[in-house]
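Following up on my earlier message about 4'-deoxy-4'-aminopyridoxal-5'-phosphate. Here are the inputs again, as you asked, copied directly from the submission form:
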Amino acid sequence: MLPSRQKHTPSCQSISYINTSPLTVLSASKSYIHSYTPSTVTVYLDTRNNVSSAGHGNPAIADAVHQQMLLQNSNSRYLHSSFNELKEQIAARLGGADDDGRGPWKIILTNAGSESNDVALRIARAHLQHKRSCKTFTTYTYSMSYHGHSTSCLSVSPYKLRKLGHHDSSLYCPPDTQVVWLPTPCPSSTPSPSTAFDAAYTPSPSTLMFECGMSVAGVVLPPASYLSSAVSKIRSDGGLAIYDEVQSCCYRTGEFTCFQTMGYPSPDIVTLGKPLGNGFPLSACCVRADVLESFENEGLEYFNTFGGNAAACAAGLATLSELDRLRPVSDTTGALLLGLLRDLHNKHPRMICDVRGRGMFLGVEFLNVRAPSDPSPEGTLELSFVASRLKDFHHVLTTIDGAKDSVMVIKPPLCFSPQDAAYFADCLDKAITECLRDVDENGAMGVLGCGATST
Ligand code: PMP
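Thanks, got it. Here's what our run produced:
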């Protein structure tokens, strides 16, 4: 399977578990992924797939798409009711827009988070140019944030750009991007050479691009006070706040969006993605009406061939309906799992230095056991070992991320049951114990290189 993939696939498109044994997935159901070899079927517990938030193979969503494809699947230049209905449903969940004089949320439906963030940046630029007479367009973005794979999104995605080889990702961002770091208590978020927002900010209309619920940064959720002060600073100079909720939307952290869960100020633009279609390509760029005006008046039509087609809207409506049902899981099973992970933190202080997150968006930060004071990326070997053991011996799929690849990021489908949570915590306990035994007996570890990052 692997050689035939390599034949026509660029090597920069990576595979999870490449160093041990990549999975061949032929089916999946709820929180489980079924992997096939010619002789066996293995069922894995999935703790990492926030896209299939309403569960793998969700029959209600599959059926809604199937029925719509049979009926018709025209683009958004023809009228179809689900196009309006989906926007009503999204706007109702974002809340608060109709009564504050800024008009309703205007929503552009796209196929991917990158497309939504790309058009969000264009809208912000048009607003700053036409309403604020800007000639330069500074965008503040956070070190370790990721906003997508298009040229404009990459230019504000230090998480990806740092892979070009220099510790200071700001060197790779274009001059109008200012990389700032986030003051958080997370051990892994030691600032790179970029400066804090307060120090970097120069009063002029600009854009704050903020990934709510930073996932690839290793589950970083700054306090509301931080966002309130950053957003009011940006707004007081006529600038805009864009929140990227592509990862964190759809009840992952409890409320519909992470900004609602965390009590951050409501943004000017918010993008939604990944879970919105439960795997069907669907994303949304939601904009306050007063901010959209300049973009609307520029005279350039926004047409997106597949964006908001009837099947995508059917997927979105069915997904929201399923997620409304599953929403309490974020609070209940999320709290249960957080408690179990905190117990593991207490039990294994040599291995775990922090457990954090909200709802079903949790992070476990690992230490470098062999050299606890060594902050080098080598500290990730233990986590890599644990993740490999979890997959190969306990059949649990996990994600590793964070600035030093030292955080296990947990964001399972929301149908994750209390039994799934207990099973996962038990397996994690065993894998950590096995890892510590290996370190103590051998001084080194046998299995390396899980490499299962999540973007
Ligand atoms: N923003 C965030 C926060 C993301 O995590 C991602 C994808 N991982 C994107 C944007 C880009 O989304 P897509 O891959 O759908 O273009």
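One observation from looking it over: The domain at 74-308 is CATH 3.40.640.10 (Aspartate Aminotransferase; domain 2). Hope that helps, and feel free to reply on this thread.
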